[in-house]
Design goal:
binds S-adenosylmethionine; Rossmann fold; 7-stranded mixed sheet
Length: about 240
């Protein structure tokens, strides 16, 4: 991967950044995504935000080497605190866990006033993001699931307000876990991801059955059985 050619994962994120956007890439690491977007003139301005020294310095170096310092501002800070009010209309957060992404959005709510679109790529627990979006009146506009180098990634695109209502009241739990759009499309990556997750959960339940029963193990077993049932609800026999 470099700033001319992104991984499929980051290319999928890039695809959903509106043309000409001013965007902030939070947890930017080498700033590949902002450099790619600005080099190709697909965006007009970007902030590359990083909380850790090493990646922050890599991002700074990358932006200077590419000659993009006038259109990409590299800033050190936690989550959305690197954004000034009204500076961006789109935020990307990729390559972290879903609960960390949701926490970053929650801690930075006041910075979201001017933001129209969020493009989020959780490595795990997209569920936490769907819940956050729903609780905070962001509409999930679309989702993608892709496989790259034997890993499966989800990309969630949200816009402020009630633009779309993708959840059906009768299947909402399953759709929050697996994704309302992804559950309908059920592509190969989706089927693979959830068959693997389900097999893992079944293995854990098997181990818990041989362990001493405590309140904790009983609760874990119940949670995993519930998730298995939700996967079966969507995949049916395909998940066996
Ligand atoms: N976004 C890039 C990608 O998708 O390839 C880099 C992903 S990297 C695995 C995650 C990056 O997020 C790390 O560089 C880490 O330092 C940064 N990070 C984690 N928590 C953060 C936070 N609260 N604020 C800003 N950056 C954060």
């Amino acid at each position: 991967m470099n700033t001319d050619r992104l991984s499929n994962r980051l290319e999928t994120v890039a695809k959903y950044i509106p043309a000409g956007a001013k965007f902030a890439d939070i947890g930017s690491d080498h700033a590949y995504l902002p450099c790619y977007m600005l080099k190709k003139q697909k965006a007009s301005f970007a902030i590359a935000g990083e909380v850790v020294d090493g990646p922050f310095l890599s991002a700074q170096k990358q932006v200077v080497n590419e000659g993009l310092s006038d259109v990409i501002s590299v800033r050190k800070g936690n989550g959305l605190e690197v954004i000034n009010d009204g500076e961006v209309d789109c935020i990307t957060i990729a390559g972290m866990g879903g609960s960390l992404i949701a926490a970053i959005l929650d801690d930075g709510k006041d910075k979201l006033r001017s933001v129209k679109r969020l493009v989020l790529q959780p490595n795990v627990s997209a569920y936490s993001i769907r819940i956050w979006l729903m609780d905070n009146e962001w509409s999930l506009m679309t989702e993608e699931i892709i496989e790259e180098d034997d890993k499966i990634y989800e990309v969630l695109v949200a816009e402020k307000g009630e633009g779309k209502k993708p959840y059906s009241s009768s299947h909402i739990d399953a759709e929050l876990l697996l994704g309302p759009y992804l559950s309908k499309e059920k592509n190969q990556a989706f089927q693979k991801k959830w068959s693997i997750e389900k097999a893992n959960w079944e293995r854990i339940i098997g181990r818990l059955e041989t362990a001493n029963e405590t309140e904790e193990t009983a609760a874990k077993r119940q949670e995993l059985s519930w998730k298995i049932a939700l996967v079966q609800e969507v995949l049916g026999n395909e998940s066996n």
